Amino acid sequence: MLGEKALELIKEMERSKDGKLPAYNDNCVRLVLEEMTALFQQNQDDVNATVAGEAQYYPGIRLRHASLERNKRCLLAYLYNRLERIRDLRWDFGNILPPEIRENLCDPEIEWFARYSKNLATYSRSLGEGSGLDLTHDIKPPKNIYVEVRCLKDYGEFEVEEGDVVVLQKNTTHYLPMSSCQHLIRLGVLQQVD
Amino acid sequence: MSDVDEDVVAASDDEEMMTAPEVLQRLEEAWIIERMSPTLERHQTDLVDCMLDQINQMTENLKRCKKQDFRAAVHKMEIDRIRYVLSSYLRVRLEKIERYAHHLLEKDASVKDQSETVLSPEEASYAKEYVSSMESHFQKVVLQQMPEIIRGFDAVKECVRPNLESYIFLKVKEATPGVLLEDDTGDGRDEEVDLEEGSQYLMRYNTVKDLLQSGAVVFI
């Protein structure tokens, strides 16, 4: 059926809304593009076969053209929604993606991710007349200066502000300043203990 | 340690003098409005820059004071809070800039007076780069492989626009009589309301956006 594959792409995005970003569906995108080329070719043939003043092919041409437009829209929606999810990844993981997520992106998407990261960094640096402010920090309102954290992975030495160094070993708990350890919490190295 | 909170600072272009707590209060107001408004409000770069400068100064001052000083903890907490407000405010803006990038750039392009723009120069270049990176991605991945006649990408047609007809809660700071509420159903049941100071309303964004600009109302 016309446009079925394109709809599949949209459904795929809808279904995975709260979960992990699904792998880039290269196969499906290619099938949609092939369908478009075929539709276009058929339309070309019909237009060429039409003698001036004859209208018998028009409904078919219109239908195919509508399908073309629809396929295009679905493809763009698919890409756009993926980019939005990839943008969210930048805010969650920083500018280096974990390999298990990275493998679900296609090459142009990885390129886009790098470009987005760079753009965001440029903007962050420009804040405050050049002094800069990292917007990916301070996601939650601060409740306390210090938080109790449990270490989930061996991380090694970690420098807290003013040169104090703590060694983060698995299954140890520490009492650290929120401002210096929140990125480790987001990376999953530390877990906040309430 | 000097009490930085009492420093008098210049915060806007017309060199209007404000104290740091006033700047913070204005910033918090802008933050709430930005979070509630369906579209992007005018940028407050002066407030942001001023407050960032204050934070940096306070951090410097803190370094000089003794570690055991209990006041240090209180001040540090305050810095953390201000920094949260600042970055949350800028994050909300960025989110909207990304979503409505094309629309906002178009809107700013039609404004003649440079001081009237919604985006700050840095935000504008961010938005431009964002839009162009998206477009080149679309081009590269699918558009170029499409049949020629359908390949074009019309950003004006595809872009997302904010819904200016959405409803927002607002609080009146200055009494404003005779605000016209137009009836969109076309039955001609237009209404006029007098906004009294201190009262709260639920209204459409479009009807009150001018009042918001002039500072007569704030969102809650």
UniProtKB/TrEMBL annotation, chain A:
Residues 38-127 form the GINS subunit domain. SUPFAM superfamilies: GINS helical bundle-like. Keywords: Chromosome, DNA replication, Nucleus. Component of the GINS complex. GO terms for cellular component: GINS complex. CDD domains: GINS_A_psf1 (cd11710), GINS_B_Psf1 (cd21696). This is DNA replication complex GINS protein PSF1. It is found in: Chromosome; Nucleus. Required for correct functioning of the GINS complex, a complex that plays an essential role in the initiation of DNA replication, and progression of DNA replication forks. GINS complex is a core component of CDC45-MCM-GINS (CMG) helicase, the molecular machine that unwinds template DNA during replication, and around which the replisome is built. Residues 143-192 form the DNA replication complex GINS protein PSF1 C-terminal domain. InterPro entries: GINS_A (IPR021151), GINS_bundle-like_dom_sf (IPR036224), GINS_Psf1 (IPR005339), PSF1_C (IPR056783). It comes from Scylla paramamosain (Mud crab). It holds the Pfam family Sld5. Belongs to the GINS1/PSF1 family. Its main location: nucleus. GO terms for biological process: DNA strand elongation involved in mitotic DNA replication.
TrEMBL record, chain B:
Coiled coil: none annotated. Gene3D superfamilies: 1.20.58.1030, 3.40.5.60. It comes from the Eukaryota. The keyword Nucleus applies. Residues 68-140 form the GINS subunit domain. Keywords: DNA replication, Nucleus. InterPro entries: GINS_A, GINS_bundle-like_dom_sf, GINS_Sld5, SLD5_C, Sld5_GINS_A. It is found in: Nucleus. It holds the Pfam family SLD5_C. GO terms for biological process: DNA-templated DNA replication; double-strand break repair via break-induced replication. Residues 162-219 form the DNA replication complex GINS protein SLD5 C-terminal domain. The GINS complex plays an essential role in the initiation of DNA replication. Belongs to the GINS4/SLD5 family. This is DNA replication complex GINS protein SLD5.
